[in-house]
Design goal:
2 domains
């Protein structure tokens, strides 16, 4: 009888162990998960705090650079407002589009500046207007040179009503500042020269 009691006690202990172990494992796993989550959260907060500190430092640096640029811009604006041409006496208020580009600059830069503007206008005609070399090949009777001649005459003050102009240029000409019109005319002359060179190479 006593042996049966031992067996029953062992069975009861075994059943209790089977019932309690999952709870014990679950509790341990939950505690470990919670501890790991809190540790990871703390590390992430520390990392974010470090990143925020670095961003604040960069923002402060950028703000200082912006203030420096604003100061330089204000200085340039002040210089521009007080600008006076040393050759003709024009100032920032009276200067217009016809003011010679070389006034106040070394004379050695005159030709380089004009040439750069002509090349820039030629690039603009190609990119913005679509006047590519292929497009120019459609005009083999000197139309480009004639247009340049008309623009030049209008640029130097010839009136549009001058009869020959109506028979020379096949395109309407926009009236602009004389210097700007001469730059456009030079770009057209350049396009015509390039067309003639291509024709010579092909032949």
């Amino acid at each position: 009888m006593q042996q049966q009691h031992y067996i029953l006690a062992l069975v009861a202990l075994w059943l209790f162990t089977l019932a309690f172990l999952p709870f014990l494992f679950a509790t341990t796993r939950h505690r470990a998960s919670t501890a790991g989550f809190e540790d990871g959260l703390a590390k992430r907060h520390a990392l974010h705090a470090l990143e925020i500190e670095e961003l604040e430092g960069e923002l402060a640096k950028t703000g200082a650079e912006c203030e420096s640029l604003r100061a330089k811009l204000a200085e340039l604006d002040a210089d521009a407002a007080s600008w006076v041409c040393g050759e003709c006496g024009s100032n920032a208020q009276t200067r217009n589009a016809d003011h010679p580009v070389w006034h106040g600059k070394p004379r050695a830069n005159i030709h380089a500046t004009a040439a750069r503007e002509v090349l820039a206008e030629r690039r603009r005609q190609i990119k913005e207007k679509g006047y590519t070399p292929e497009h120019d090949e459609h005009y083999k009777s000197g139309e480009l040179a004639k247009a340049a001649a008309v623009i030049t005459l209008l640029g130097i003050g010839t009136t549009p009503e001058w009869p020959p102009l109506n028979n020379i240029c096949r395109w309407p000409v926009k009236k602009e500042a004389p210097r700007r019109m001469l730059v456009k005319a030079c770009a057209l002359i350049l396009a015509e020269i390039e067309r003639l060179d291509r024709t010579q190479v092909q032949s």
